[in-house]
Amino acid sequence: MKNTSTIIGILALIAVIGIGAYVLTHQPAPTAMTPSEPSSTAPVASTTEESATTVIGKSVEGRDITAYHFGSGSDEILIVGGIHGGYEWNTVVLSYDLIDYLTQHPEAVPQNEKVTVVPVLNPDGLNKVVDATKRFTESDITETLAETIPARFNANTVDLNRNFDCDWQATGTWQSRSVSGGTAAFSEPETQAIKSYMEAHTLTAVIAFYSSAGGVYASNCHGGVLPDTNAILTAYADASGYPAYQDFNFYDITGDMVNWFAKEKIPAISIVLTNHTDAEWDKNQKGITAVLNHYAK
Question: Containing H/E element for 87?
Fold first, then answer.
């Protein structure tokens, strides 16, 4: 009887050992974690296509002037909105619509191109109407057009589109009003930001958004309209449906931004929206696409 119990015990031990060996040999091998592989608690980088941003300057009151960059080509197109702050807030809406579009459709930028969008050149002026540090919509604007007039200017009460170096004067004209052009060309930090950006980058074209007259306008600073300015003027107008004009002749303009770019031999056009409340995205998306296609290689 004792021998029988011993034999049974030995057989049970052998069975346990056999089962354990089977389990060990049939378990999946542990996966080694390489140094580049995140642990379960480490943050994972987003794969969403987003633009790169840089702060290209500060306003009089210290607000950031931010540029959004798309593409990595050697040719760069600069697009500027909000030069007249809260008075032309719809140009800021249009600029952000463009940023959204290029973020969602990076393929819209040709491989040889880089597109840089400065949605708000005059954040202090915009801040007089709406919080300039946040995205906003038309419903956030409560002031009437007449109430937004002081928001056209920067915190030094300078009209930034009279502060560039083409026919600059200390006193400029806006419609029937006299406005400050600053103490000298580029006396304002906002216009200095654009000047510095131009000097540090090779720009093939510039598009500036304004309101309101409804048209595409060529740039010129006593040297005639550049051939490539005429080319993108025609391309934008034909695609968007805006009428094209060789010059802005409603009244004399001094210190104008796109005319200064023309002086620097950089093709530039002004897109003047039809009114002060509509961004007219569909029209402008077609116009911008036409300009991008013009420069695609």
Answer: none
CATH of the domain at 108: 3.40.630.10
DSSP state, residue 155: T
Residues near 216 by Cβ (< 8 Å), separated by ≥ 6? 233, 236, 237, 240, 242, 243, 244, 245, 269, 270, 271, 272, 287
Per-residue exposure over 101-114, b if at least 16 CB sit within 10 Å of its own CB, e if not: bbeeeeebbbeebb
- Residue-range definition of the domain harbouring residue 77: 52-295
**Residue-level length of the chain:** 297
One-letter identity of residue 214: G
What was the pLDDT predicted at 135? 94
CA distance linking residue 68 with residue 278, whole number of Å: 22
Number of compact structural domains in the chain = 1
> Residues 130, 132, 135, 141: what is their CA dihedral angle, to the nearest 10 degrees?
10
Taking the CB of residue 194, how many other CB atoms lie within 10 A of it? Answer: 27
Question: Considering all CA atoms of the chain, what is the largest pairwise distance in Å, rounded to the nearest integer?
Answer: 123
Q: What percent of the chain has pLDDT over 90?
A: 81
- Does residue 264 sit within a domain? yes
- The secondary structure of residue 53, as a DSSP letter, is E
Least confident of 95-99, 248-252, 261-265, 287-291: 248-252
Confidence band (pLDDT; 50, 70, 90) for 297? confident
- Asked if the structure places residue 238 within a domain, the reply is yes
Q: Where are the beta strands (DSSP E) in 128-267?
A: 171-174, 177-180, 203-211, 215-218, 244-245
pTM for the whole structure: 0.83
Assess if residue 87 is contained within a domain: yes
